[in-house]
Amino acid sequence: MKNSRLKQSRNMSPILPFTEANSKRVASLFRQALRTAFDSSLKYDAYRNETIKIRQQFEANKHISNPDELEQVIAKTKAKLNEWKHPDPYIPPCRPGGTKFERNISVPREPLVPGDW
Questions:
Q1: Three-state SS for 48?
Q2: Domain limits of the chain?
Q3: Which of 14, 47, 81, 113 could, after both became Cys, cross-link 67 (CB 3.0–4.6 A)?
Q4: How buried is 70 (Cβ within 10 angstroms: 0-12 exposed, 13-18 middle, 19+ buried)?
Q5: What sign has the CA pseudo-torsion 79, 31, 14, 67?
Q6: How far is 50 from 32, CA to CA, in rounded Å?
């Protein structure tokens, strides 16, 4: 079943440039690039410089109107993100997987020992 989905996705026509679907895909890649940059440098100054570089790279490819060229650029971007992916990404403390997640779980309201005391 999984192989049939892969074959279907390969046979499908590429997403056309300047459509809502493409805009969402590019925005998702942009956010992922920003998160990856934040994981690699937790200092705000270095992170800000990286965000400016990332924005310039995305702006440089903004004009692409050929669907095949667009697919190539997106594939290169995904490969670069996988290459730069941090092995231990930053997780906010109160988020699932964070250091404070469910640290102080509230006491259940029902009686701990059954019976009428």
A1: helix
A2: 14-84
A3: 14
A4: buried
A5: negative
A6: 13
